[in-house]
């Protein structure tokens, strides 16, 4: 029983001052270790889950990603987007890949309120519209399709990317 009390810094009467000093240091080290472990655990549970999703594909339910979807019809140079979440999303950017070409940003919406199933049109810039029309006449005969990807920022400030397969990934803004 005396050893257990000594670890906590309680020193029996009649000991030397050097023993009292060492017992106090032992208590200080023990308390510091406990506080450091508690701080590390708190940081992991506070920041760890968010860091683990960055760059990794997640489903909307897992990360509580706003349900944003974008698509296009190959016949007409137009991108439609819906926001089925209850909160607006911001900086919605539409990327279109024509056939086998690399996806390029064709337009954006500053703020997209909740739309339900009613789509909103993305304002497509003139260069993208012209490229799309040229592609329709020349390459569309090859049976290749129009693929749309979308990026956006949710109400917490997190940026997301929904790729051509429909998978979400957290991205750096």
UniProtKB/TrEMBL annotation:
The answer to whether the entry has keyword Transmembrane is yes
**Lineage, opening ranks:** Bacteria, Bacillati, Actinomycetota, Actinomycetes, Propionibacteriales
Report the domain of life of the source organism: Bacteria
Show the stretches that span the lipid bilayer.
20-47
Listed A to Z, the keywords are: Membrane, Transmembrane, Transmembrane helix
Q: What is this protein called?
A: Secreted protein
